[in-house]
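[Meeting: bench + compute handoff]

Bench side (C.D.) handed over the final construct sequence. Compute side (W.E.) agreed to return the predicted structure before the next meeting so the bench team could plan truncations. Sequence as handed over:
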Amino acid sequence: MSEHLPVSVHPSSEHVHCPAFVQDAVFSLEHVWLAYGMGEDTREVLRDVSFGLHQGARVGLYGPNGSGKTTLLRCVTGLARPQRGCVRFHGRAVSKDFRELRRGVGFVLQNADDQLFFPTVLEDVAFGPLNLGHTPEAARACAVETLESLGLSGFEHRLVHRLSGGEKKLVSLAGVLAMRPEALLLDEPTNGLDNEARERLIHILQNLSAARIVISHDWEFLQQTATEYMTIVDGVLSARTTSIIHAHTHAHPLIYSPGFCVSPSTL
């Protein structure tokens, strides 16, 4: 593999110093540990996670329910705070104030209803640009342009609560894209979508240039929207090749990246 990977994953070892993966990354995590509970009830969700997402990356993240996939994205955006480790945005450590990172990294939640809170579509999509300091006129123009780019022209004055599940998902994506993020985090974006909405989402993602991590259990969807793959097993984040993703493929090569080697036999 090239030394300049769009996504870099590094081994969990206190003896490995790997500053290179932070360089030029949109965001990165360094030796992040996160656990829930206390005492005997403590459960480690993320164990010594280190990786960086670079421009152009299209990463599919998969794993069992409860393995820590959503928690990982929440750590990136400051919605979950690790007990140890560091989050960086363009190489700068972020500890308390995640506002700048959230401007550059858009998070599309699994449940669109958790992300839509204005009566009309236009108000919802324009909220992000307004929050960035745009004038109301500029924010509306940005919202209209974004809706048009997603094939949602004419939705501006529709009531959010009357949209279908697929329409809500696309509108929540529009609200994030209207902020012109450098990177996207999408949590199970195909949940609840019919085939038409799913195909529409695939087409949209295939034509987006922003770096992204997509969580999904939908293998076919990941194959069409991602070019690299990661998984979380027992709290450990590791890279995987497409040969492991395909359920009917029996080739199991080792994965190499700078300072990193993992055997697919651990799956």
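W.E. noted at the follow-up: The longest strand covers residues 25-36. C.D. will use this when planning the next construct.
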